Amino acid sequence: MFAVTEQPIDTAALRASLQRPEAGALVVFEGWVRNHHNGRAVTRLEYEAFAEMAQSEGDALVTEIQQEFPGVTITCVHRCGDLVPGDIAVWIGAASAHRDDAFRAARLMIEEVKRRLPVWKKEHHPGAAPVWVNCTEDTGVQRNAAAFNARQSSLPEVGDAGQQRLAQSSVLVVGVGGLGCPAAQYLAGAGVGRLTLVDGGRVELSNLHRQILFEMGDVGAPKASRAALALRARNPNITIEAFSSDITASNARTLVTGRTVVLDCTDNFTTRLMLHDLCLELGVPLVQAAVHRWEGVLAIFQRGEGGCLYCTGLPAQSVELDATGNCAGAPVFGPAVGVLGLLQATEAIKVCLSCPVTEIATRYTLLIDTLSTDITRVERPARVDCPFCRGVAPATSAASGSDDGSPLWVDLVGMADLHAPRLVVLVTEAESREFVLPRAARVLHPADSVTLKNVAAETTGPLVLVCPFGLRSAAMARGLRASGKSNAFALVGGLSRVRLAGSSSVRPEAQA
Ligand SMILES: [Zn+2]
After folding, report:
1. Residue 214 to residues 43, 171, 218, 451: CA-CA distances in angstroms?
2. Which of 137, 157, 173 delimits the end of a domain?
3. Distance 468 CA to ligand 1 centre (A)
4. Ligand 1 is a single-atom ion; what residues have CB below 5 A from it?
5. Is residue 512 in some structural domain?
6. How many angstroms separate the alpha carbon of residue 424 from the centre of ligand 1?
7. Residue ending a domain, choose from 396, 417, 452
8. What are residue 239's phi and psi, to 5 degrees?
9. Residue 464 clears pLDDT 70, i.e. is over it
10. Residue 84 resides in a domain
């Protein structure tokens, strides 16, 4: 329930109205009129609201927050008219089965009332003319913005001008998971003026070890809105928007258009390719990262700079990629996504600064192996025959993503054409019991050091990588090709789709 009233607020009646047998907690916030503001004495306040707008916005707020926190009931009353020190200007009550939800919903309501409600106040000071103060302004916070940014703006490469450019920047973060959380936190910390978070997912318990913006109480809640809430508490000087839905072909163009830079923090190929194509078409720099277990890849795509994804030999058709499935739910080393997320933020902030002395890694792909502490920078030149880089939309002829005529993906028929390639299976111990493994394959577990170097050392001949769903092997094959092993391939569909000829349900003992 939301109401605007000119009468004194009856707190006992409001508390009673929120009593319900299923509630285990009531969190109450009372906003009082104080006798001073910004170092000046205050004798009285006049609150004025656009009543109809305030009512509809307040109703919408209560509905939104009750949806965000299912099971929480909220009542908010805002007083208008003449008030004196000691009066209650705003009363918010949140009743819930559990105290944590009640605290968080009440906190969100307070912040949003300050931010969104069309209410103004006139302050009366002794011996001076009264002044209008916008309730959405917190002058203390605004005054502190310079202090907030001081340690960064004092860098000669940033300065006040760079800080200003950051404040004028608009950054889109797609995916608020292991990569998106640290990236968004540092973008907010850097003072990016408009930060938009997009994620249709909800927080899961298994996310918390790496998705640092979430707490236990967030499990089950939409990721984008909870991340925005956490970030607003860290930096209230910037605008943070949350879209709790997936980015799709129908909304992507609107979301990407006009951005200073876009961060791809997703874990699926369809979105990856869509953002890649759209950003290059619109001329918006794209900072992309992906992590598999201990290893990560970072690439910055900018039109006219370095090679695109198609230049690197990735299939152009997301349909083909979808057919390979993905490794969502696969094991991942928390700090590896943290490192890659921070690198994404680093490069994105440099794009926003547009500082001539900072180099942005648009011509390289960075491969990071946190298990062996190995960092490799691989040049990513534009291919002269790349249809995408030449301004032609990716066509079926480029769909196989051929690199010197050899596609990254092979099926069983294609594998036969390779004449007894070396098969390397990338599975965990548990997965090796779940799937039927090819008999003659070399099986590598996380306990082994699965790195580009030791996989490449398996053979100088053709190498086909196989993983449960195809994503892990494709990433590894791409990495191998980028580091010079052009005869590395990934098996389409992985173990989940293909029953290999000569397979055994028992893991081979000899792995040589
Ligand atoms: Zn290209």
Report:
1. 42, 21, 6, 31
2. 137
3. 29
4. 308, 310-311, 386, 388-389
5. no
6. 29
7. 396
8. -95, 125
9. yes
10. yes
Q: Can you read off the two tokens belonging to residue 462?
A: 């053709």
In the DSSP assignment, the letter for residue 381 is: P
CATH number of the domain encompassing residue 413: 3.40.250.10
How far is the centre of ligand 1, averaged over its atoms, from the C-alpha of 270 (Å)? 18
- 320: tokens are 């083909």
CA dist., res. 105 & res. 28, Å (int): 11
Residue 370 alpha carbon to ligand 1 centre in Å = 29
Chain centroid to CA 414: 37
For the stretch 3-40, pLDDT in tens is: 999 999 999 999 999 999 999 999 999 999 999 988 88
pLDDT digits (tens, 9 = 90+) for 346-374: 999 999 998 766 677 888 889 999 999 98
* 265 Cα–ligand 1 center, Å: 21
Asked whether 59 and 74 are in contact (CB, 8 A), the reply is no
Please tell me whether residues 357 and 456 are part of one structural domain.
no
Full residue range of the structural domain in which residue 255 is found: 148-396
**359 and 422 assigned to the same domain:** no
Distance 464 CA to ligand 1 centre (A): 24
Examine residue 509 and state whether it is found in any structural domain, yes or no. no
- Provide the terminal-to-terminal Cα distance of the chain, rounded to the nearest Å: 69
Q: Decide if 152 is inside a domain.
A: yes
